[in-house]
Design brief:
By secondary structure, the protein is α/β, with parallel strands linked by helices. Helices cover 27% and strands 25% of the residues. The strands form three sheets. Strands 3, 5, 6, 9, 10, 17 and 18 form a seven-stranded mixed sheet that branches. A six-stranded parallel sheet has the order 13-12-11-14-15-16, sandwiched between helices. A five-stranded mixed sheet has the order 7-2-1-4-8, with no helix packed on it. Helix 4 runs parallel beside helix 5. It is globular. The two termini are 20 Å apart. Bound molecules: adenosine-5-diphosphoribose (APR) and zinc ion (2 copies). Adenosine-5-diphosphoribose (APR) binds next to helix 5 and strand 12. This is S-(Hydroxymethyl)mycothiol dehydrogenase.
Length: 370
């Protein structure tokens, strides 16, 4: 067992604290990872606010890169010294989804078996709930070996670690879920960290035009840098009309975009995305709605009449073993700009400040460097 520094949310709504935790030696199927970087994601804030469940205390952080320090029995996929990006979907290989070859839907993903615990205070010894089964705002963390994907060790950890959650969700929403590609138009509504990544994914796929929509001019500027061919400020103009107009400029007769990605997570923007699709277009919901939000009331005939598909994208339908190494290689080759997503590098003490910046929209990602 080792004792290391970590960022913990002890109670609902209370500010996070930097404290010490105990990390067990890896047992069968587990890996101990020396964390180098970990991005701050909306989900960490949801945990702290009690919006996910009440299993406090939480060990936050889940968008991480690091080096494997030790592995337990039966681990063959990774070894000490490997540079890895962590994922929160270690597939089981045995469930119905896995057996039919749809590993991205695995119904039985797993995490480390042993618990990390608080090391100081009155509640020392209390088991921690790691955010998304990772808990990487910590100098070291214990995960299932299947949560580690080996990637090019010369890549910048702060950039490639973001593939562990939000950036992969966006890229995957475009490429995996939306099946964006040559000959297709893509519109992305909401260009925060996730939507901007969807724009980058659409650009990688060869799709054109790529229409970025946001109400914040700075986000649109970033989207353009990542590959958007057109931008729409929907606080000033009608997003649906603009998407239709731009798509038709390239593809005569098009009544909207072939793939529309909703990366805000609100009914209004989902409805915009619905009506901004061309016939047979795909609508991808990747923004995460709150429990009280409902699907907007739509004429069923409008659903029927357009054909296509209404989809949701969970972790960008990614397969970490397939997608992480490929995307890291594209980054290393200068074909995928991940550095743009790293707005700032911060210390463990700055996580609360990073949550505030999330609200004011001034950053794509704050990344804790350990
Ligand atoms: N129309 C267009 N864009 C909007 C609108 C709107 N009505 N309202 C908000 N936006 C934009 C914001 O300006 C911001 O750029 O949506 C973007 C949201 O981005 P972030 O807050 O950075 O969130 P992000 O990390 O990208 O996640 C987006 O996916 O993972 C989920 O919980 C997350 O629901 C959130 C969504
Ligand atoms: Zn499975
Ligand atoms: Zn996340």
């Amino acid at each position: 067992m080792q004792t290391v520094k970590a960022v913990v949310a002890r109670a609902k709504g209370a500010p996070v604290e930097v404290t010490t935790i105990n990390v067990p030696d890896p047992g069968p199927g587990e890996a101990l990872v020396r964390v180098q970087t970990c991005g701050v994601c909306h989900t960490d804030l949801h945990y702290r606010e009690g919006g996910i469940n009440d299993d406090f205390p939480f060990l936050l952080g889940h968008e991480a890169a690091g080096v494997v320090e030790a592995v337990g029995e039966d681990v063959t996929g990774v070894a000490p010294g490997d540079f890895v990006v962590l994922n929160w979907r270690a597939v089981c290989g045995k469930c119905r989804a896995c057996k039919r070859g749809e590993l991205q839907y695995c119904f039985d993903t797993h995490n480390a078996t042993q618990a990390m615990t608080l090391a100081e205070g009155d509640d020392a010894g209390t088991e921690l709930s790691p955010a998304l089964g990772i808990g990487a705002f910590a100098e070291k963390t214990l995960v299932a070996a299947g949560q580690c994907t080996k990637v090019d060790p010369s890549a910048r950890p702060a950039a490639v670690g973001l593939l562990g959650c939000g950036v992969m969700a966006g890229i995957g929403a475009a490429i995996n879920t939306g099946n964006a590609g040559r000959g297709k138009s893509v519109a992305v509504i909401g260009c925060g960290g996730v939507g901007a990544a969807a724009v980058a994914g659409a650009a990688l796929s060869g799709a054109s035009p790529i229409i970025a929509v946001d109400i914040d001019a700075a986000k649109l500027e970033t989207a353009r840098r990542l590959g958007a061919t057109h931008t729409v400020d929907s606080s000033r103009s009608d997003a649906i009309e603009e998407i239709k107009r731009i798509a038709a400029e390239t593809y005569e007769g098009a009544e909207g975009a072939d793939v529309v990605i909703e990366a805000v997570g609100r009914p209004e923007t989902w409805k915009q995305a619905f009506y901004a699709r061309d016939l047979a277009g795909i609508l991808v919901l990747v923004g995460v709605p709150t429990p009280e939000m409902t699907v907007p009331d739509l004429p069923l005939l409008d659903v029927f009449g357009r054909g296509g598909a209404l989809k949701s994208s969970w972790y960008g339908d990614c397969l970490p073993s397939r997608d992480f190494p490929m995307l890291v290689d594209l980054y290393q080759q200068g074909r995928l700009d991940l550095d743009t997503f790293v707005t700032e590098e911060i210390g463990m003490d700055d996580v609360e400040a990073a949550f505030d910046k999330m609200h004011d929209g001034s950053v794509l990602r704050s990344v804790v460097v350990l």
